Prior knowledge:
34% of the residues are buried. The protein folds into 2 domains: 5-187, no CATH class; 270-399, 2-Layer Sandwich (Heat Shock Protein 90), CATH 3.30.565.10. By secondary structure, the chain is α+β, with helices and mostly antiparallel strands. Helix 2 (13-36) runs antiparallel to helix 5 (95-111) and helix 5 packs parallel to helix 7. The chain is 62% helix and 10% strand. The protein is rod-shaped, with a radius of gyration of 39 Å. It holds the Pfam family HisKA_3.
Amino acid sequence: MNLPPLLTRRLTLRGLYTLDALGAVASTVLCYWAAEAAPADGRPDEPIWLSLVIALAIGLPVAVRRHWPYPAAMTATIAASIGLATEIIPAFAAVAPLFAMALVFYVFNSIARDMRAFFFMFACTVLVSASLAGPIYIAESEAPTTDDTPPWMLAFLLAALVVSLASMLGFTAGERRAQTAERNEQMLQQATVEERLRVARELHDVIAHTMTLIVVKASIGNHVAEADPREARDALQVIEAAGRSAMLEVRRVLDMLREDTPYAPAPGIDDIPALVQLASVGGVEVQLTMDRPDEPAVAEAPESVGLAVYRIVQEAITNVVKHAAPAQCWVNVAVGADGVRIEVDDDGKRPARTHGAGSGHGLIGMRERVALHGGTFSAGPRAEGGFSVRALLPAGGGA
C-alpha cells in the first residue's frame, strides 16, 4: 500500500516547530481540562488561575523541547509532579500530563542519548510516578482495600511505562538518525575519494601523454637546432600544439569540479584520429583502423565508454613513444554489438622487461578503467617482438 507523500516526506525544521507548537497547545488544553475535573473525594476545586498555571507549566515545554531539552523535561516533570501530588490534576485524569511527558521525553532521548541523559530520565520517571501513586497510597492507607495488586502500584507502573516507553522510542529514533547521518557521511567521503581518484587518473593520462611528446620533440629539436633549424622549428610547433591540447584537456578536467561551469563533452572514440595524428610526430608511425557499423544502436557507445576507450588508446600510444620509439604501432578500434574492442601493437626493439614498465601507473590505470566498466584487459610482450595491449569494454558500460 502506497502512503500519501505527506506521510512519507520528512518534515522541515519549520514543520517540526509547527508540530511542537500544536503539541504544546494540545497538551495545555488537555491538562487544563484535567485540572478542572472535579476531585473524586469531593474536595472543592482549586482556583481557575492555578489550574491554568499548572496546565501551562506542563504543556508549554513541549513547544521548546528541541531547543532546550533538559530545561523542558525538568519543567514538565516538576509541574506534572506538583499537579499530581497536590491532586490539582486528579489521578483519574493523569493521562493528560503523562501525554505531555511522553511528547517531551520522546524528543529529549532522541537528542540526549548519553548516560547522563539516562539517569536524568530515570529520576524524572520515578518522580512523576511517585507523585501519581502517592495520593492513591495515602487514600488506601486510610481506607484499605482487599485487592491483590494495590491501585497505587498500578498507577506507579502506568506512569513509569508511559514515560520510559516514549523515551525508548525517542532513543531508537535518535540512534537511527545518527546512523543514517554517519552512513551518509561515509558515502560522501567515499564519493569524494572516488572523484579525486578519477580526476587524478584523468590528469595523469593527459599530462603523461603530452609531456612524453614534448620531451621527445624537445630532445630532437635540441640535437638538430644548429644542423637543421627547420627540423627544430617543426619540433617547436609540435611542442606548442601538444601544450595547447594539454591545457585544454586539463582545463576541461578541472572545470568538471565547478558547479557553475557549462557542460563540455569529454573526448571519445571520434577524437582518436586526432590523437593518433599528434602521436605520430613522436617518432612512432601509427596506423589506425576503426570499425564502426552503420547501425546507430551499435555505433553509439555511452560517453563513459568512449572516454575510457580514448584514454586507453592514449596511454598505450604514450607507452610506445616513451619506451619503444622509434617504432611502428598499429591501433585497431572495433565497435560491435558486444562492446568496444581495442588492440594496440608495436614492434619496439627495447627489451620486454622495460617496455611498458617503469614508475608510472599507465598499465594500472588502463586496467582500472576496463575493470570499472566490467570489461577484460591484457597486456604483455609479443612473440615476434614489441608489446601488445588488448581490451574489451561492454557497450552498456558494465555493471
